[in-house]
């Protein structure tokens, strides 16, 4: 007689092994102890994704791709699916964490527990001044906007007022777009008028972002963007060729 999938005979010995079996459909936890253990392990792993992947990406670039940012970006994108600014933000976070590793483990531990949006804000600070900034700022309790203000004040920048009268709702729109999964957008674009509006809006937004990075001379971001656009151009050519064929 075969034991049931949820029986003790089939219960894995570790929480991580249970997660693998749940994902493959071979096991579903039943007892409260197992359910709590699986959730605890799952969310512990989720919290590690940003800091650990950032360190790995930064270390790979330092040790194996120091002479070619483009090759590093292609390698990293193939493994993570990240592209452009997202990929370079993650690498910048990794550089920040590596700089604190061994130098100030308390700062490293505090950084590793932060969400990605706040870590990105902190990358504006030099590695040398980060510890001092965090010694007088409880960044763990700050929202992203409050942290932005604190960093700007530390750098001696004048507070920037959002130009809402000129583009009402613009900043809110950006926050909404940033939180949307790409797959969800693809599902929503199901007719020609919507596709045309998305295309026009995307071109305008991309052009504005490119102009900013050109002004700031963010060469690495521009290189990554160029590679991504060339890849998309190839896909468009393939689509055109298949249609003509």
Descriptive overview:
- This protein is an all-alpha fold and 245 residues long.
- The chain folds into two domains: 31-160, no CATH class; 163-245, no CATH class.
- It contains twelve helices and no strands.
- The longest helix is centred in the first third of the chain and has 33 residues, at 32-64.
- The N and C termini lie far apart (57 Å).
What's the short version?
With 245 residues, the protein is mainly α. It contains 12 helices and no strands. Helix 1 crosses helix 2 (32-64), helix 3 (69-80) crosses helix 12 and helix 6 (116-122) runs parallel beside helix 8.
How many discrete domains?
Answer: 2
Straight-line N-to-C gap: 57 Å
Q: In angstroms, what is the radius of gyration? A: 23 Å
- Major β-sheet profile: none
Helix content bin: over 70%
- What is the N-to-C succession of helices and strands? HHHHHHHHHHHH
Topology:
Layout: H1 15-24, H2 32-64, H3 69-80, H4 84-100, H5 105-112, H6 116-122, H7 127-135, H8 144-154, H9 170-179, H10 182-188, H11 192-215, H12 219-244
């Amino acid at each position: 007689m075969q034991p049931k999938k949820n029986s003790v005979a089939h219960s894995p010995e570790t929480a991580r092994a249970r997660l693998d079996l749940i994902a493959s459909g071979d096991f579903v936890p039943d007892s409260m102890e197992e359910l709590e253990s699986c959730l605890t392990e799952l969310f512990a792993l989720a919290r590690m994704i940003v800091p650990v992947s950032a360190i790995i990406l930064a270390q790979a670039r330092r040790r194996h791709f120091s002479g070619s940012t483009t090759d590093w970006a292609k390698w990293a994108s193939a493994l993570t699916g990240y592209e452009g600014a997202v990929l370079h933000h993650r690498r910048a976070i990794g550089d920040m964490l590596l700089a604190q590793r061994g130098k100030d483990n308390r700062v490293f531990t505090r950084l590793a527990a932060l969400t990605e949006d706040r870590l990105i804000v902190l990358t504006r600070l030099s590695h040398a001044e980060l510890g001092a900034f965090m010694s007088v700022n409880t960044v763990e309790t700050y929202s992203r906007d409050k942290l932005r203000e604190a960093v700007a004040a530390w750098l001696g920048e004048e507070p920037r007022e959002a130009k809402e009268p000129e583009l009402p709702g613009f900043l809110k729109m950006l926050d909404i777009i940033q939180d949307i999964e790409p797959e969800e957008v693809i599902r929503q674009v199901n007719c020609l008028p919507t596709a045309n509006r998305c295309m026009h809006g995307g071109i305008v937004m991309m052009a504005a972002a490119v102009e900013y990075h050109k002004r700031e001379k963010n060469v690495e971001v521009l290189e990554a963007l160029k590679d991504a656009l060339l890849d998309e151009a190839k896909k468009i050519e393939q689509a055109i060729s298949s249609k003509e064929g």
